[in-house]
Specification:
With about 325 residues, the protein is an alpha+beta fold. Helix content is about 40%, strand content about 25%.
Amino acid sequence: MKSDRLLSILLLLQTRGRVPARELAERLEVSVRTIYRDVDALSASGVPVYAERGRHGGIELLTGFRTDVTGLTADESRALFVLAAQGAHAALGLDAALGSALRKVMAALPAPHRPAAEATSRRVLVDATRWKGGPQPIVDLDTLQGAVFSDRRLLLRYRHGGDTEAHTYTVDPYGLVSKAGVWYLVADRRGTPQLFRADRVRAATLLADPVRRRPGVELADAWEVLRRQVEERPGGVEVTVRVRREHLDMFRRLTASMLTAPPEEEGDGAWVTARLSYGVLREVRGLLLFADRVEVLAPPQARAELARAAASVTELYRQGG
C-alpha cells in the first residue's frame, strides 16, 4: 500500500539521513520514478523532504526534523513482541535495554493494539536452544562485540573442534550470529570468510588497526556464504548403523544434524536402520555414547575406529583398577 511505503520512506530517511533514490527503490521494490512521486506526496503533506540530483545526491529530510511514528498495524505491533530467548540478549548485555525499549514501544502503540501486543508477549516464546543440549559454556562476547562495533581487527587464540592446541589468527570481523543458541563470529581471515565459534575462543585481543573488510560485503552476505558451505558440503564419511527400536527417539534427537534420511522403521524387529554423515572419521566416536544400543554396520573403517576407541577406554579403566 502507498501509505505503508510513504511511512517506510520516512522512517528510512529519519534513520539513515541522505539515501539514494535507487537504494530506496530497491528496498521497497518499486521504480525510482515511483520513489520520486512518493517524495512529492510527502512534501505536499508537509514533510520537509527534498531530493538532490547528481553522483553524491539523494533524498533527505530537512536537518533537525523528527517525527513520532505510531501508525503501526496490529500485526506489526504483535511482531515486535515475539522475542527470542532472553539468553541471546543477556549474552550481549542488552536484557535491560530490551525491556526498556519494549516499554517505550508499548506506550507508543495505538491504544487498540496494546492488548494484542501484551498478550503476544505472554503467550508466545521463542527458545532457540536445543532439547537436552547440556549446559551451555559461558561465552565472553565483550571483546568480540568491541571489535564488531568499533570496526577494528582482532587477534584470536582459537581451538578448532577436534584439536587439542589453540591457534593464533588475525581476523577482520563482520559481526556476530546466534545460530540455534550458539554464538559465532563471522570474520575474514586473509580475505576469506570464516566462522569462529565464540565458545572456542580462548583469548581475544582488540587491535589498534582498523578492520579490512571486503568492499561491499555485509554481515548477511558473509553469513550466507558460510551457511551454504556448512549445509551443502558433502559428508566425509557415510555411516550405516542399526539402532534398538526402544531407543530410536533418543537417537534421533541426539544425531539430528548427522542423519541423512529418516530411519527405516519397516517391520517390527528389534532393530532399525539409519544412515549418518560425518565430516571426518574420528567423529564417529560420538556413537559410543549409545553403548550397545547402536551398532555400526558400515563402512569397515568406522567399525574399526569405534573398536579402537572402545579398547582405549577399556585399557584406561583396567589400569585404574
